[in-house]
Each structure stands twice: as C-alpha cells, then as structure tokens.
Amino acid sequence: MFLSIYENKLDKKGRVSVPASFRSYLSNLGYNGVVCFPSFNNQSIEAWPQDRIEKISNTIDSLNPFEEKRDFFATSILSESINLQFDGEGRISITQKLLKHAKIKNSMFFVGQGKTFQIWEPTIFEKFKVSARKKANINRASLKWEHQLNK
After folding, report:
1. Which of 34, 43, 64, 67 lies in the 20 to 30 Å Cα band around 25?
2. Maximum Cα interatomic distance, the chain, rounded to a whole number of Å
3. Residue 50: which domain range?
C-alpha cells in the first residue's frame, strides 16, 4: 500500500524521485511507472497504478455510451492521464501541465492514499490536511469494519 508522506524536490532537469516504498509497491504489482492525472477533487496530482486506471476505465465504459456523464468522466480522467515511467534512479518527469494544476514549483509531497497516492504542493497540502482531519473527526462514525461471518 501507499502509506505516509514524503517530501522531494524537482532536480535541474525537472525530474523528481518517487519514494522508494512507493516504487517498491508498484514494482511488486509489476509496474515500472505510475499513471498521473490532475485531481478534480483537489489541487493535487492523482497517481495510480495501471490496474486502477483500467478499473476506472471499465467503470466509465459501463455507462451508456451516449450519456453525457460518460464523456465527462472519460475527458476528466482518461484524456488527462499520462503514464510516467521510472528512470534508472527511480525518478519521473512530471509534465508542466500537471505541475501547474497542483501549483508545484520545486518541492512536493507524495501523500499515500492506500491503493493510490497524490502529489501536492506542501503549503496547499498542509491546509488541506487540517481541514481533512476536522472533517474526518466529524464523520468518523461512518467508518465501519467489515464483518466476516464464521460458518
């Protein structure tokens, strides 16, 4: 899983090192890269393994092919996605379009989200984190353990 928060900086050539634990998880899934797209929930970059993108693509494909919602999701997620491969040092080159969306200039946070991760500008993330914690506290009762029935 993608857990924790790591900070890394862009190098002179515009590359950034993906945290080793994130690369290891992706490698264990059989991937040498990550699919990134601009979040439409937050001012961040979504980073997903290929299988998660395929899952969302299948979900979009299950919608009526002539329904507007299908086009909205396909355009917002699939057409904006880019497959970023790791170089020999475990770095990716994030596009200027993605960096601009997240307002990242140099430093960024890699934020674990379980099966995915996000990339944030640190100051924007810190503000979001305070708000998220308050909202999580208010909504904490909605998190419930899955119950397994023993037969």
Report:
1. 43
2. 60
3. 5-138
